[in-house]
Design goal:
Helices cover about 5% and strands about 40% of the residues. The chain is mainly beta. A hairpin with a 4-residue loop joins strand 10 and strand 11.
């Protein structure tokens, strides 16, 4: 399983390019060993070079059997690939942002208690605040917030695995699509780790670059999440 996860991650890295094109939005001061890249859709992302070679500081096993919805990996080493992440950013004026989101559809009606995801700080010395929410679906992109929680990420971006757990109570209807959405506070950067190790179905995710949502589908890449 680990070999499969690493091969998939390598393919993801090869499909990406160093972010040198005009208009790319990434932190001005990335941590040592990190680079800005774009995925196959040209979306800004970050890679922590060398992190995949390091042993996890600790391992958090996924608990998919009790989850309403999740895409955490079944790998014994990590529920997600923490060294490859989406940037989550909000400008000081609020005029520009990068808000990633991932879609899920519950099999049964339920009220959530929490949302967990691999959310870390862009710089190890600066805790960053933001919001984790569940949104309605609006024609294949996030609609309006049902419930959310303000959070502060303190774990460093890098080797696996430090899931952040937000207490979010949202009433969900079976068979209806919803979205897990993250947003950073003004002038903050967060990084939201990907699950690209053992997908079996294509994932639908979306990015808001400040002018509206755009949806994407990928069989090998999506922000990680677990909804309980």
């Amino acid at each position: 399983m680990l070999k499969k996860a690493l091969l998939s991650s390598a393919a993801l890295a090869l499909a990406s390019t160093v972010a040198s094109a005009a208009g790319i939005h990434a932190p001005a001061h990335l941590p040592n060993g990190a680079i800005a890249v774009t995925n196959s859709h040209g979306i800004p992302m970050g890679m922590m070079l060398g992190a995949q070679k390091n042993a996890p500081t600790h391992v958090v096993m996924p608990s998919a059997t009790s989850a309403i919805a999740t895409n955490w990996s079944k790998s014994k080493n990590a529920p997600f690939i923490s060294w490859y992440s989406y940037f989550v950013y909000e400008s000081s004026t609020g005029s520009y942002g990068e808000e990633p989101a991932v879609q899920f559809t519950p099999a049964a009606s339920a009220t959530t208690s929490s949302v967990s995801l691999g959310l870390a700080v862009e710089s190890s010395s600066t805790p960053s605040s933001g919001r984790v929410s569940i949104y309605t679906d609006a024609g294949g992109v996030p609609g309006t917030e049902i419930a959310g929680k303000n959070v502060t990420a303190t774990e460093s971006w890098g080797p696996c695995c430090f899931p952040l757990k937000a207490k979010v109570a949202a009433s969900l209807t079976a068979g209806t699509p919803y979205w897990v959405v993250t947003k950073a506070d003004n002038s903050n950067y967060l990084v939201w780790a990907l699950q690209d190790g053992d997908f079996v179905n294509a994932a639908t995710y979306a990015i808001n670059f400040g002018s509206g949502w755009a949806s994407y589908s990928s069989p090998w890449e999506s922000p990680d999440y677990e909804v309980k």
